[in-house]
Fold:
Amino acid sequence: MKGTSVFLDQIAGRRAAARVIDGQLDDILIDPPADGPAPVGTIYRAAVERPIKGQGGVFVRLPDGNGFLRQASGLAQGQNVLVQVTGFAESGKAVPVTLKLLFKSKFVIVTPAAPGLNISRRIRDEETRARLKFLAEDLMEGSTFGLILRSDAEHADEGEISEDIAEMRTLAEAIVENIEGAPEALLEGPDAHALAWRDWGTPDEIVTDPGCFETRGVLDDLAHAIGVHEPLPGGGGLFVEPTRALVAVDVNTGSDQSPAATLKANIEAARALPRALRLRGLGGQVTVDFAPLAKKDRHQLDQILRTAFRTDPVETSMVGWTPLGHFEAQRKRERLPLDAAVRQAVS
Structure:
């Protein structure tokens, strides 16, 4: 089927959302388990604890553990701060948090720490930009908060945009004023269904029937997509294996070992890598062992990797080539790796 379909269902008793583009599973969002970590986007009132020498950050006390706050100069021990969860921590480590709160919805983002009005660069029509700017300035009058109009606002109804701005502004003002008291969760991060509505644009089809993952083949597609081996169109394959230290990716060219086939397999692997990591929920350090590659071809592969990751929703920094010829990237841990309960449910 051509076009984009979004399916909202459950896996292992947890809310999940799947996006299928032109018949291929492109993305999957799954809530953490009930006893798992807080979703990304959760906002806490926290108390500053001790600084971490040499790392430029401090621990903050949360109601259910510790968070780690980078670039925390000027904070005093015992001071109350509002922080937002930015990712999932590795086992035994503090939750990564930030002071830069974002109140994000489908059409707008309210930014208490960054005043000013910004409009997505993807909105190119000058008349539309002027109309949106006038609307936003009117609704944000008297506020010191900043506002970003997202690309989905370009074709949205003005009433929906106005409602979104008012709701996010009211929410942000209420949270920011709530600084006094013991550490407490003030706003829970969005679940999988809310994230899909917020970040996946306007699909051609939205399916919400209970059990639609099974009846529409999503579980089968996910089962094929989360194994160690990721087939490539030309007959080669990616082997994606998370370890405690990093995510190791090996590129296999298949039976054809000619230089042309090797370069083709590497290009296919570079294009497939963001989806392979996204569906498995993998982040942190990623080390790719491409098939033997001439140094003159590295620049071409660099460009393909950067283009492939540019549209990926998870922030990934391209670090570059190691002396041994591996390619390294650092990927934000915005998602939890698929756990045993999910893998059992789709197997």
